[in-house]
Amino acid sequence: MTATLLLVQVLNGLQFGILLFLVAAGLTLVFGVMDFINLAHGVQYMIGAYLGATLAALTGSFWFGLLLALPAALVFGLLLEVLVFRHFYERDHLSQVLATFGVILVLNQGVKAVFGAAPMQMPLPEALSGGVRIMEGLLYPSYRLAILAAGLVTAGLLWFLVERTKLGMLVRAGASNAPMLSALGVDVRRLFMMVFGFGAMLAGFAGAMAAPILSVEPGMGDNLLILAFVVIVIGGIGSIRGAFLAALIVGLVETIGRSMMPDLMRLFLDPSAARQTGAALASMLIYIVMAAILAFRPAGLFPVRT
Predict the structure, then answer these.
(1) Which domain holds residue 210?
(2) Is 83 part of a structural domain of the chain?
(3) Which of 9, 84, 236, 286 is the Cys-Cys partner for 302 at CB 3.0 to 4.6 Å?
(4) Is residue 119 part of a domain?
(5) What is the rounded distance in angstroms from the CA atom of residue 256 to the CA atom of residue 279?
(6) Using CA atoms, how far apart are residues 280 and 272, in angstroms rounded to an integer?
(7) pLDDT tens digits for 130-179?
């Protein structure tokens, strides 16, 4: 692998890691604060992509589509919380898994009924349709760099919100001892609803940002959800800092591993076997990394103190 190709894969891995963080950040807050397992979080990523693509087509502008998709994803997340999820907060985790899996099936089929099974595409904004010269012979897409920048800004704002504001203090207190927080006069149910809606908006934002570079189709969030759970386990459940670092690790390992493993296997196997073996090992690599990290840090890289 050449240095140019390696740099491209590193940038792609960072960009994928940023999208993973936007999804995992909301998921880790919901899981860490509310102790609620939401398998339908990946569906909210899909809904954000559909909202962004649809609203961009209706308004004729990528930027209007993106801006309108954020409150729409927030409202959709709050609607799900009121209609379905809040009825399972006090239930066991198995009930939560079954209920949210049912939501996945319903919404995937609902999207097919409304938009059809054919993939949709959200056009790139004209201002970011070109490329940026990183080095001689390497022109990297401007939009992918914009995703990196937007994700870094969002991560900084989210860290400030959780660690340096009164609302963040209440969220951290709710994660540590919700009954005590309720006894002090805080409406914990309302706080949980805000956390859930904010997490849904982050997932929708990730979906809308990914829509111009990925196919918008039913079920597009299912595979991403698995990696998001890997991120929050590695980073530490409820930890924004852990989710950010783990998302970058997962993004880099997933992207570079898939591009390098077949070449690495060619050192030991014939090209056909190397391609098959490399692809199989690449799909396992992130779980091997997760097991190795948890062997030394069973609670994750940055576990939340409770």
Answers:
(1) 3-296
(2) yes
(3) 236
(4) yes
(5) 12
(6) 13
(7) 888 887 777 889 999 999 999 999 989 988 988 888 888 888 777 677 78
